[in-house]
Design a protein that fits this description.
- It is globular, with a radius of gyration of 17 Å.
- The longest helix has 13 residues.
- It has a single domain, classed as Metallo-dependent phosphatases (Purple Acid Phosphatase, chain A, domain 2), CATH 3.60.21.10.
- The chain contains seven helices and ten strands.
- Helix 5 runs antiparallel to helix 6.
- About 30% of the residues lie in helices and about 20% in strands.
- The protein is α/β, with parallel strands linked by helices.
- The strands form two sheets. Strands 4-3-2-1-10 form a five-stranded mixed β-sheet. A five-stranded mixed β-sheet has the order 5-6-7-8-9, with helices on both faces.
- Helix 4 links the parallel strand 2 and strand 3.
Amino acid sequence: MKITLDTFVISDTHFAHKQVLKKEPLRIKELQASDHENFDELSVSRWNAAVKSTDKVLHLGDLYYSEGMKYVNRLNGKKMLIVGNNDIGKLAPLKDWEIINKLKIKLDNKASLKEKLKSKFGKKLKDVYANALVTRIAGEVIMFSHFPVFERKKNERFCNARDIIDYLFTISGCTINVHGHIHSRTPENACCINVSTEQLNFTPTRLGDLLAKHRGF
């Protein structure tokens, strides 16, 4: 699936994940202000109100938990998932999703970039959490990833994957990182656009609109 300015993006929907409601109180607040009894139903409703069956949607990870497929199966659009840390072991049911579970580089110099990655990281490149898409859109070299670049907790368990992603961002000459993972928190770096669902009014949003806002238009 080719990503364009018209592609919808979102991350960290966490369908059927009860604990995330405790960690992200904005979800409860939004639910209480709605006419829905279930937050996942609210999410499905907002997704399908924005996205038509022919629209493209890029999800940046942490899609669903346990019984969440009953909600995922109702989502409109032609969908792609960049695998996040909570998606491991949950990909088999996603029959109609395009899955990115590696580093996918769509640049003219991708061969030399892959050689640099191999030289620096070797077998560590097989890390199941090292997933990203790098492509050029509207004059920007954009990395789409679950984790934000250059931001992490000290000694966290994803350090190797994040070292790889940070390095790829740098050597690719990326100008923007569209990411999720940190939910309602603001990213530390100006190059980052956090598309966690809490940041988007729990609604997939077109990439072009996000870039325009980021650039201050």
